[in-house]
Every structure is written in C-alpha cells, then in structure tokens.
Specification:
Distance between the termini of chain B: 41 Å
Radius of gyration of chain A: 13 Å
Radius of gyration of chain B: 14 Å
Mean pLDDT of chain A: 93
Largest sheet of chain B: 6 strands, mixed
Distance between the termini of chain A: 31 Å
Low-confidence stretches of chain B: none
Number of helices of chain B: 0
Structural class of chain A: mainly beta
Largest sheet of chain A: 7 strands, mixed
Number of strands of chain A: 11
Order of helices and strands of chain A: EEEEEEEEEEE
Helix content of chain B: under 10%
Strand content of chain A: over 45%
Order of helices and strands of chain B: EEEEEEEEEEEE
Mean pLDDT of chain B: 92
Largest interface: A-B, 28 and 26 residues
Strand content of chain B: over 45%
Shape of chain A: globular
Oligomer: heterodimer
C-alpha cells in the first residue's frame, strides 16, 4: 500500500458525459501528478499540482481539467467523454516539487466509456 | 526530447532462471531513473531508483539495476526469478529541470514458466 488513495476504483459511463476522479496523496506529500495508461499510448503524464498550484502540463486534452484543494487532495475532471478516453488513470504523489523525489502511485481508477 | 525505450515487449523465463530487462533512455543530462512493477489490475509499485552515486542500485524483491551513462541504459536484473515476479515492468526517467513528471517506457511483460 503506497498510501495514495483513489476513488472510485471503477467507473463506467457513456459518451458525452462528465466524470470526476479523486485522489488523496500520502500524508505530508505536497505534489500530485496525474497519469493516463491506455493500450495505444502507454503511460502518459497529464498534469502536476504542487500545494494547490498547477506546475506542469503534459498531454492533457482541453476537455480534461484538474485541481488541488487546500487539504491537498486532487480531482481530475473529464468532460465530453469519448470512447478513446477509456483508460486507467493514476494519481501519484511526492513530497516536494521537482526531483529527485520518488513518486508513489495510487491503485488507479479504471474508466470505461461506452 | 526525453524518451525511454524498452526494446522487449514480452519476455518469458523459466522459474529459477536469471532475468535482465533492458531500458534505454534519451536525455541531455543525468536523469533520475526508476523501475516500477505493475501486477494485473494493480497500481505501480516502485522497485528501485537511481538519483546519483553508486551506479548499481538494489531494490525490493531481490532486484537490482545498473546505470551505465556511456550506454544510456538502466537495465533491471534478478539472479533467480520466482513465479510471483510475473508482471509488467516499467522503466521511467525523471527530468531534473522539468518538475517531477516521469516519462515511461512502453513496458515489458514478464511471464514465468514453471
């Protein structure tokens, strides 16, 4: 158990819908990262937050957004969902911004868009 | 641009045999390097990491990896594989000047024959 929690574990929804994925980092970790794992793209970095502020963006679609709250939990919002958004979404956390720091991964949320 | 290559998509070894999983990276400076393991339906567990110093690093579950700057490689090894090692293994590189985001290889799926 990494100490990073993600909810829900599984999510099934329809095209065009909007979902919210939630992540609670390890106690004391200020930095949260979101990754998407899909069969065709592999594991890709989406976005990073540090202490409530966005710090880095990767290959995140405009339909996706995220935020980190004062209690440091983070939410990833996916809207106007398409079939291709079906994937495993991971959250990771680390203590500080930048490196060298180890990122600890949550169990993931598996999203299926029908 | 940074990249990570895991040349072997799938490897099968016999239980008790030695294992080496290859990882090559492309990065302009000394990177942070990681190996993670993902069991079916599970999240990513950190096996080991290299930040600096001794180029041979030890990890959990009897794994080790060697950083070879001249070859831009960070291969993962285990002297004797156990059936429980069957999983997918990911090599990742972190950039020292780009926050903490990780670039992952495509993964190597390990099967273990009895």
């Amino acid at each position: 158990d990494s100490g990073v929690t993600q909810t829900p574990k599984h999510l099934i929804t329809a095209t065009g819908q909007r979902v919210t994925l939630r992540c609670s980092p390890r106690s004391g970790d200020l930095s949260v990262y979101w990754y998407q794992q899909s069969l065709d793209q592999g594991l890709q970095f989406l976005i990073q937050y540090y202490n409530g502020e966005e710090r880095a963006k990767g290959n995140i679609l405009e339909r996706f957004s995220a935020q980190q709250f004062p209690d440091l939990h983070s939410e990833l919002n996916l809207s106007s969902l398409e079939l291709g958004d079906s994937a495993l979404y991971f959250c990771a956390s680390s203590v500080v911004l930048g490196g060298p720091e180890t990122q600890y991964f949550g169990p993931g949320t598996r999203l299926l868009v029908l | 641009a940074q990249s990570v290559t895991q040349p072997d998509i799938h490897i099968t070894v016999s239980e008790g045999a030695s294992l080496e999983l290859r990882c090559n990276y492309s990065y302009g400076a000394t990177p942070y390097l990681f190996w993670y393991v993902q069991s079916p339906g599970q999240g990513l567990q950190l096996l080991l990491k290299y930040f600096s110093g001794d180029t041979l690093v030890q990890g959990i579950k009897g794994f080790e990896a060697e950083f070879k700057r001249s070859q831009s490689s960070f291969n993962l090894r285990k002297p004797s594989v156990h059936w429980s090692d069957a999983a997918e293994y990911f090599c990742a590189v972190g950039a020292r000047n780009q926050g903490g985001k990780l670039i992952f290889g495509q993964g190597t799926e390990l099967s273990v024959k009895p």
